[in-house]
Design brief:
Distance between the termini: 48 Å
Radius of gyration: 18 Å
Helix content: under 10%
Number of strands: 15
Shape: globular
Largest sheet: 15 strands, mixed
Structural class: mainly beta
Length: 244
């Protein structure tokens, strides 16, 4: 095997491992059909979904938890609409809040309408659980082994993307890059270590429709341990029409 081929295979494998987490909860975290408290995470009908208060597992890894654009007020309307661009395959999506009582919506199927997939959610459970609209995090991906993300439009666009990571330990990000065809077209950093959510925004209204790569260098700092460095890679689609 030529050295160039070996490098290419190694790079592809690294990319796959970096983005390989599932948006579908594991069987061990199955959605119960009923619960004693109406607000607790459980199976719902009309529309079919799993929704409610659910303590989020801290996880053991640095991960992407939101790629969205949100035009939310300080209070919810009666219905919250989630919209995901249509690229020919039905996406899988999760809506979460990591604050307060914590909340999760998943196992739902958005309906195809015009050039997007749409899901209309009554907000009685969000309001009953006193979930802040600004704390919602949304992420969607296309089916397949290689996870490719699509932005979730929550209610309406804010004209920029919100990109949020979650880390179980104090983490700093010395370099975040968004690349198109190998060229860096946006970069940012967070040098103050923090645990939990790490939030970025990206104004991409002037960037062309294409597939992009997200590359993030991070450093995790656990008590009484040496810092651990890592690189997170993800692929996603962008179209400026989704931000207007």
């Amino acid at each position: 095997m030529k050295p160039q081929s070996a490098i290419a295979i190694f790079t592809s494998a690294l990319c796959f491992l970096a983005v390989s987490f599932t948006l579908t909860p594991s069987p061990a975290a199955a959605c119960p059909r009923t619960a004693s408290n109406y607000l607790t995470y459980q199976r719902r009908r009309n529309p079919d979904r799993c929704e409610g208060i659910r303590r989020q597992a801290s996880g053991a890894s640095f991960r992407l938890v939101s790629f969205a654009t949100k035009g939310l007020n300080d209070t919810f309307n009666n219905t919250l609409t989630l919209r995901i661009p249509d690229l020919g395959q039905t996406p899988t999506a999760i809506l979460r809040s990591y604050q307060g009582k914590q909340y999760q919506l998943d196992r739902f199927t958005p309906r195809r309408r015009n050039n997007e997939y749409r899901f209309n959610l009554a907000t009685d459970i969000l309001n009953g659980a006193i979930i802040s609209p600004q704390s919602l995090r949304a992420i969607a991906k296309l089916p397949g082994n290689q996870h490719i993300y699509l932005p979730v439009i929550v209610d309406r666009t804010s004209e920029e993307y919100e990109i949020v990571f979650h880390s179980p330990t104090r983490t700093l990000i010395p370099n975040l890059e968004i690349r198109r065809n190998g060229e860096v077209i946006h970069s940012d950093r967070r040098l103050n270590p923090r645990q939990g959510e790490i939030r970025f925004t990206w104004d991409a209204k002037n960037e062309p429709a294409d597939r992009y790569q997200l590359r993030v260098e991070y450093e995790q700092r656990s008590p009484n341990q040496r810092p651990e460095n890592g690189v997170y890679l993800a692929l996603f689609h962008h179209d400026p029409a989704w931000l207007h």
